[in-house]
Write a structure and sequence with these properties.
The chain is mostly helical. The protein is built from three helices and no strands. The protein has one domain (11-44, 53-80).
Length: 86
């Protein structure tokens, strides 16, 4: 692949590019390539990576007492009855 040089970027743009790349955990080069692909519609969509949020409202709604009750039930089921295994 050929190398492309981009001239005329002011310091603010350069720092913003670096900051956003760092936030996304990417190298500056990879961030720019990904951004160009997105803008040009060239990024391939992952077939099985669709995120659904239709059940989000169900998570995190247990009270502390409900959690303890459920956890106690789980813990009691994890106990081994040694008489059955001898």
């Amino acid at each position: 692949m050929k190398t492309i040089t981009v001239r005329g970027l002011d310091d603010t743009i350069k720092e913003d590019l670096k900051r956003v790349a760092r936030q996304e955990g990417k190298s500056l080069n990879q961030f720019i390539v990904d951004t160009l692909k997105d803008r040009l519609g060239l990024r391939k969509q992952k077939k099985y990576s669709v995120s659904h949020h239709d059940m989000d409202h169900l998570f995190g709604i247990w009270s502390e007492n409900e959690f303890r009750s459920i956890q106690q039930k789980i813990d009691s089921e994890r106990k081994i009855d040694r008489e059955l295994w001898q």
